[in-house]
Amino acid sequence: MGGIELGIASVVLIVALIYMGLYIPVALGLVSFLGVWIIRGNVDIAVALLSESIADTVSELVFAAVPLFALMGLIVSKTGLGKDVYEVANFAFYRIRGGLGIATVAANAIFASITGSSIASASVFTRVAVPEMRRFGYRTRFTVGVVAGSSVLGMLIPPSAMLIIYAIVTEQSVGHMFIAGIIPGILLSVAYGILILFLAYLVPNFVGGQQAADVAAEDWAHLTWFDLVKKIVPVLVLVLVVLGGIYGGVFTPTEAGAAGSLAALVIAILRRGFTWRDLWEVLVETGYITATILFLIITASMYSRMLGVAALPTVFGEWISGFDLTLNQLMFVYVLLMVLLGTIIETASIILIVVPLFLVVLDSFGVDLVWFGIITVVGAEIGLLTPPLGISCFVIKSTINDPSVSLADIFTGAFPFAVTMLIVLIILILYPFLSLALL
């Protein structure tokens, strides 16, 4: 078997191993190691490639942003800022039909700007938003669907771990990727708000909550503007420190992660609800997240090198070019692949596996890789809401701990939001300036 055939077989084998339940980094590392061994006929070369992948990954300064932003997000989750943001958003939107759903989207968008994690958003707002919305009479499927749909904003609105990983893979500026995610993130948030209004007026039995405004008015009548400002100021401070620091040229993205973590810790201490035990749990969880992501990146780096040894990216580019596709046709194939893979593999793995294959093809079209990164993240994120492996939906199921709420309920509720994401993705493909206007 030649290098090309082996490279193609490796892609098929990795997907098959993942389907059979093998841990994704293990599948990547195992196939990569064996692939290089078979191609070169020398196990020492395969070992050297593994060592090189590990050394190059752990020595990259930009990877320090991953644990720092994870630490900041976990501290924020522990201090209850997600609940505060949700209460402020509820106060702003409860008078509108479906307003608590819109409030959840708005709160998730704000929360995303200080955590950068869809999983964190799904976990926090399952605890905060789902009980409140159900108390106000909103239907269960709509409630969990709103939380699942809006949780994906964490991967698009900066600071986003996925945008960091994409920037590393394609050697783009992390700061440029963050800036490019702002308008698409706002666009997707607005689209979700419009969807909720559409459902509230045209499919009221699916949404529920028709009497929510009257109940909410009684619940929140005691809130003053001072209470609202006190709840939102810590969030604004974090946004100013992280995003203001990056866009103002004060910090690099990695330094912004450190500054944001320090600011989050200071806020947590000032709120007096953060114990030494909480700090220990946050540090341990940060270690778990960092180890998982770096293990994935190491094995994906090895896989990319194996593909290079097999010359698959070059051959794949020549093969795709032979079809004489237009850019829009190529993007259709790419998005279809991303959505399908998103049903079985999480976003970081998709970026690390698929993007290197398409880089050679994109050169002939002169595609802006920053724009392509936004398309990649949105396309892969659709898979977080679709079966059989919609990760956000599984997080909600495990967090809600309610036997009456099935996975089918969550996937059903998330379906309109997945369709909305697809529509927004098409708009972003047709109008690249939406992603590049702020650069």
Secondary structure topology:
Blueprint: H1 3-19, H2 24-40, H3 43-58, H4 65-79, H5 81-93, H6 99-115, H7 118-135, H8 140-151, H9 161-170, H10 174-180, H11 182-202, H12 204-207, H13 212-219, H14 225-247, H15 253-271, H16 276-310, H17 312-321, H18 327-342, H19 347-363, H20 369-382, H21 391-400, H22 407-430, H23 433-436
Helix pairs in contact: 1-2, 1-16, 2-3, 2-16, 3-16, 4-15, 4-16, 5-6, 5-14, 6-7, 6-8, 6-11, 6-14, 7-8, 7-21, 8-22, 9-19, 9-20, 11-22, 14-15, 16-19, 17-19, 18-19, 18-20, 19-20, 20-22, 21-22
Explain how this protein is built.
This protein is mainly alpha-helical and 439 residues long. It is 79% helix and 0% strand. It contains 23 helices and no strands. The chain has helices at residues 3-19, 24-40, 43-58, 65-79, 81-93, 99-115, 118-135, 140-151, 161-170, 174-180, 182-202, 204-207, 212-219, 225-247, 253-271, 276-310, 312-321, 327-342, 347-363, 369-382, 391-400, 407-430, 433-436. Helix 9 packs parallel to helix 19 (347-363), helix 18 runs parallel beside helix 20 and helix 20 (369-382) packs antiparallel against helix 22. It is globular, with a radius of gyration of 22 Å. The model has no long low-confidence stretch (mean pLDDT 81).
